[in-house]
Each structure stands twice: as C-alpha cells, then as structure tokens.
Amino acid sequence: MTLITTSALTKRYPGGVTALDGLTVAVDPGIVALVGANGAGKSTFIKILLGLLPPTDGSTTVLGLDPAEKSAEIRSRVGYMPEHDCLPPEQSAAELVTHLGRMSGLPRTAARERASEALRHVGLYEERYRQIGGYSTGMKQRVKLAQALVHDPDLLLLDEPTNGLDPAGREAMLELIHRIGTEFGISIVVCSHLLGEVERICTALIAIDGGRLLRSGTMAAATTVRDVLVVEVDEGTAELEAALRERGFSVTRDARTLLVNSPGGADEAAADAAADDTADAIVAAVADLELPLHRLDRQRRRLSELFATEPAREKASV
Ligand SMILES: Nc1ncnc2c1ncn2[C@@H]1O[C@H](COP(=O)(O)OP(=O)(O)OP(=O)(O)O)[C@@H](O)[C@H]1O
Questions:
Q1: Which Gene3D superfamilies match (predicted)?
Q2: CB of 173 closer than 8 Å to CB of 166
Q3: DSSP character for 251?
Q4: N or C end of the chain, less CB within 10 A?
Q5: How far apart (Å, rounded) are the C-alpha atoms in residues 214 and 224?
C-alpha cells in the first residue's frame, strides 16, 4: 500500500499565503524525509496529513485513508511528534505518556505498560518517574518521541526531531529514529531542514520549496548520479584511463579515481541499463589489462549538492 498520496494539494491561509501549491506525490512505506527551507510548507503538510487542517484544494491519503473524512482513525494509527516543546513540567514522563496513551484509546493498564515500553525504547526508562521540568532538551525530545509511539502506530510524523540538540544528542536521536524505522517496521516521515541528517537515515525524499514540489522519490535515486561511474584500480590507473578512452568513453581523472561518463537515457530505466553496459565495458578493460579492481560504483552526491544545482521546477519529478 502507498503510505501517502497527494494530488494537487493546495493550502492557502487566510491573508493570502499559499503554503502548499499543487503538491502531487506518492510515497511508499519507509523512512521518508520531508525537507525544505523554513517556511517551505512542511508543518502545513504534516497538519493536513493528520487531519488537523483542511486543504484548500486537492486531496490526500494517509495509510489509504482520507484525513478529511477519517481523521480519528488516522490519529489512532499515526504518532505525531510536534516541533515545539509542549510538555507539562510538573508531570513525570511516565504520567504524561500514560495519559496520552489513554487519550488514544488504550485501556488504563495497557496504557501504563505501553508507556513504560515506549519510554524504554527511547532510553528514558530509568528516569521515567522524574518531573519533565528537570529534563535536558534531549530528554524532552525523547519524551515527545515516546508519546508518539505509545499507541503502537503504523506511521510516525516527526517534526524537526533534532531541534535544539547538541551534536551528540542529534546523533543519538537519528540512530533512534533509524532503529524504530528498521527494527519496529514503523514508517516514519521526518520533517527537517537539515539535509545531511535525513540523507543518512531516510529511504525516500519529498523536497518542497515555497509550497511546491521540488523532487520526490527514493533517496538512492536522489543521491545517485546515474550517468557517471567511479573506478579505482590499485595500480595501472593511467593505462586503464587510456584503454577506456580508446573504447570511446569520456573519462576524467582525479588522482587515483577515474570518472567515466555513461551515455544517459530517456528515463531512469534506460540510464540504469546504459550504466550497466558501461560497467561491463570497464570490467572487461580492467580484465584485459589484468589490473586489480578496487572500486566500481555509481557516483554519489550529497543532498545539499542536489539542492544547490536543482532548478525549482514547475512540476513534480520522481
Ligand atoms: N496559521 C497561519 N496563517 C497564515 N500563514 C501561515 C500560517 N501557518 C503558516 N503560515 C505560512 O505558511 C508558510 C508555510 O509555513 P509552514 O509552517 O508550513 O512551513 P515550514 O516549512 O514548516 O517552516 P518551519 O520550518 O519554519 O516551521 C509560511 O510562509 C508561513 O508563514
């Protein structure tokens, strides 16, 4: 089942701000990065997915359900970690998470058990009876994550989960999110403006800019340069470079690394097929020269490089 679909989703706030402008995406289950600069429309998108805000135009489904009609069901199957601190300082984490578990419909005992379990998953089990007011920022972020997990959701929506954390705290939070997504099999949408962070843990990407879709698809597709292969041999780099040029390839050399251009294709599948042919030709050239092959790979790029070069597009591209 598709995790989230939107069709020409548009949100205009009273006063004339268009926060989302004709957004069309289809995202499969996994750990999905929702990225964009401040004001891009990420929080608006999350609120629409939860049924907290109605769209002005267009439609969306979450776990196959329409938030406009099934917002209660969606909220029972989705956990939401809001961006801002909204925790009562006088309560303990155990009390708060149990209370929110009850609010999501769990019976009293089950809510208490699930709260303990959720707090253990986020590493707060030992501290669960302390008042939240005495917690560090990192611990408060973990309480927000635990309350999102308490009712055993199918999908977690995390709004800027590393906000306010120091580097070690950010690292620990990312590891935790990754573990929840991979070991518990819960799909996660991570809303962030930190590209380096989401690139490491997410399997898919929705990038928005000024309310418009910049790009969506798998993280691998976003970070793979399809038409450039990277080759390294332990010795004989110059001979290999010459041999590849002789075979008609355009090659550039950067120290021990050769970058070999593969003819592009009309679409992703054609580009993949062309890259496979180019890889075969490289392997054949390496074998002919009897060189030790060290690396043969598609070139990767950082998400930040993609957004530095990507022109804002009129229309979605996958
Ligand atoms: N309730 C509102 N009324 C009017 N305009 C709003 C409202 N909420 C958000 N906006 C505007 O809509 C646009 C998108 O805001 P949104 O909060 O969705 O972006 P964001 O990507 O989540 O940004 P941030 O990372 O800063 O939270 C912004 O221009 C914002 O000022």
A1: P-loop containing nucleotide triphosphate hydrolases
A2: no
A3: E
A4: N
A5: 17
Closest of 245, 228, 250, 243 to residue 297, by C-alpha: 228
| Closest to 4 (Cα-Cα) out of 21, 28, 39 | 28
What is the ipTM metric for this complex? Answer: 0.96
pLDDT digits 0-9 by tens, 148-204: 999 999 999 999 999 888 888 889 899 999 999 998 889 999 998 888 889 889 999
Please tell me whether residue 276 adopts helix, strand or coil conformation. helix
How many angstroms is it from 123 CA to the middle of ligand 1? Answer: 32
Cβ of 43 closer than 6 Å to ligand 1, yes or no, is yes
Q: Evaluate whether 193 touches 41 at the Cβ level (below 8 Å).
A: no
- The rounded distance, in Å, linking the Cα atoms of 174 and 33 is 12
Ligand 1: centre distance to CA 209 (Å)? 12
Region of residue 56 (left: phi > 0; alpha: psi -120 to 50; beta: else):
alpha
> What is the C-alpha to C-alpha distance for residues 29 and 186, in angstroms, rounded to an integer?
8
Q: Is the CB of 219 under 6 A from ligand 1?
A: no
DSSP state of 295: E
List, in order of start, the domains of the chain with CATH numbers.
4-210 (3.40.50.300), 224-300 (3.30.70.100)
